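Quick start: what a row looks like.
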Amino acid sequence: MMLPAGEPPQFVFDPNSELPDTPNYFLSCPDGLAPRGGRQMTSPQFEASVEKLARAFIATAPDHGMKLTNGSVGAHSLQFLARSKVFQFPDWVELKLMSVPDQAGATFCLFAKSVYGRDDFQQNEKRTRAWLRDVRLLTSP
């Protein structure tokens, strides 16, 4: 029996947003869009349209144990449910895609958070970084 996933966190990508007080999340945003915290990275820029970047995230998500639950290529906002391989623990992954101001290309904000437990043992970060390597391959010119 799988643990229920509950409701997604619906994180607001804003420098003034409050981050969780438990180390069971990972955040990635372009400079200036994320609140200060320890479990985050700066989002890379891609030489691709927002739609191409969205298609790459959707196409590679299943390889990382994720299923699209809300959003579409044209919506620029995607929500995934991730489950760990062995115990099927649920994590929510929220993604907001955007154009890079004054440049050709796209970037994103991502918030990944475990539903259960106080610590995810960096699993959200590891999954995000592996996922980005695959997305980079699909969006390379």
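That is the whole record. The longest helix spans residues 123-139. The beta strands are 25-29, 40-42, 66-71, 77-83, 90-99, 106-114.
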